[in-house]
Amino acid sequence: MRLIKPGLVALVLSLSIAVPVSAGPLEDSADAYNRGDYPTAVRLIRPLAKQGSAKAQYDLGVMYENGLGVTKDYEAAAKWFLKGANQGLAQAQLSLGGMYETGHGVPQSNVEAAKWYGKAADQGVADAQALLGALYLNGRGVPQSNLEAVKWYSKAADQGNVLGQAFLGFTYANGVSVRQDYVEAVKWYSKAADQGFAPAQSQLGLLYAAGESGVPQDYVAAVKWWRKAARPGRCGCPI
Predict the structure, then answer these.
(1) How much is the pTM?
(2) Domains of the chain (ranges plus CATH)?
């Protein structure tokens, strides 16, 4: 299976503004963000972030990371993510982990990435659980451990996370710290494939084409999934 680099995934995770739960300037800033008035959103968020609102600090980090209403500035994004993360905001911890993994705005450090992914993962954030699993699988920033990788992939997959589902399919297809089970592999690849994840679609096609133990050989299904994986802008496949 062609694995997507977890760092590339982490960059996508901070594209959504945290949804405020209380009325007032924070809610007004979210309204401005949703209608595309980013300068106003920044103007409303910044004072709240300076006053110590973890949610506002995270939101301001998102704005800096993506250049929305401000000049794109990864160092400023990391600064605000750190402030929110230190207050225990899981989404800020996840985003900060992504910054460390990619080296955007901070010195690249897989150890720090694992630290912050771990904090968010412990709070039940599925994306963080999947990314932490990837670090354990590859021994990046943490001791290599297939058992830990499967543990975190499973937690993410159980929440419907597409990366967790695809990686769990990979572990069952290859017997990585679990009994090799092609039926389970198809089950988890299918869940990810149904969400449009091209690598899972490609691997699902391979399993149907091979007709591995417990999986009926089905060339029609194989071609169907390969074609889905081969759509423009997606990863390649065997045909």
Answers:
(1) 0.81
(2) 6-160 (1.25.40.10), 181-239 (no CATH)
